[in-house]
UniProtKB/TrEMBL annotation:
It is an enzyme of class 3 (hydrolase). Gene3D superfamilies: Peptide deformylase. The keyword Cell division does not apply. Binds 1 Fe(2+) ion. Keywords: Hydrolase, Iron, Metal-binding, Protein biosynthesis. PANTHER family: PEPTIDE DEFORMYLASE. Belongs to the polypeptide deformylase family. This is Peptide deformylase. The keyword Hydrolase applies. Removes the formyl group from the N-terminal Met of newly synthesized proteins. Requires at least a dipeptide for an efficient rate of reaction. N-terminal L-methionine is a prerequisite for activity but the enzyme has broad specificity at other positions. It holds the Pfam family Pep_deformylase. Fe cation binds at residues 105, 147, 151. NCBIfam families: pept_deformyl (TIGR00079), PRK00150.1-3 (NF001159).
Length: 196
């Protein structure tokens, strides 16, 4: 089922999400709905707060980035095969020299900016059956995970911009929160109190 994506300005995007217990009702349905919602909006990642739930979960499928001709074959293969659900994740290491990449967000449509992040991470997480994993990611794969992880910490990519960039996009962010944008996927806007 396709869920409305929560727009910038909704308080749920600023909450630190809570762990998901193993007996969480209809978790499989929620995971499937998040996949449907992400693909419908042509996203590469979606966190539970973006569908209005302050839960520590996100899904990613960065396969579209594998088309980038500048990437080496190993990174392309990793991106193509990285369709994952992360439940109760915890980034335990972030290393390397920060690098910029132009990021966007389904909750903040029509805004893209360069964001600096470290290239290498180690993350612990559970899958939908609550099996635990500890894995290392690098490059674009790490970045997609870091972006979604920020969502469950109540952080948006716009928080990482310079004060000048924040001032430049302030009116655009206001328009998004009021629903005064054209998008081709279902959203819920905080100042309108209903989806469209």
């Amino acid at each position: 089922m396709i869920l409305p994506i929560v727009a910038y300005g909704d308080p749920v995007l600023r909450k630190k999400a809570k762990d998901i217990p193993e007996d969480y009702p209809k978790l499989d349905e929620l995971v499937n709905s998040m996949w449907d919602t992400m693909y419908n909006a042509y996203g590469v990642g979606l966190a539970a707060p973006q569908v209005g739930l302050p839960l520590r979960m996100f899904v990613i499928d960065p396969a579209p980035f594998a088309e980038d001709e500048e990437l080496d074959e190993a990174e392309k293969e990793q991106l193509k095969n990285l369709r994952r659900v992360f439940i109760n994740p915890k980034i335990i290491e972030e290393e390397g020299e920060e690098w910029a990449f132009n990021e966007g967000c389904l909750s903040i449509p029509e805004i893209r900016e360069d964001v600096f992040r470290k290239p290498d991470i180690v993350i612990e997480y559970q899958d939908a059956e609550f099996n635990t994993y500890k894995e290392e990611y690098t490059g674009l794969a790490a970045r997609v995970i870091q972006h979604e992880y920020d969502h469950i910490e109540g952080i948006l990519f716009t928080d990482k911009l310079s004060s000048l960039k924040k001032r430049i996009i302030k009116s655009k962010l206001s328009q998004i929160s009021k629903g005064k944008i054209k998008i081709d996927y279902k959203m819920r806007f905080p100042e309108m109190k209903k989806g469209r």
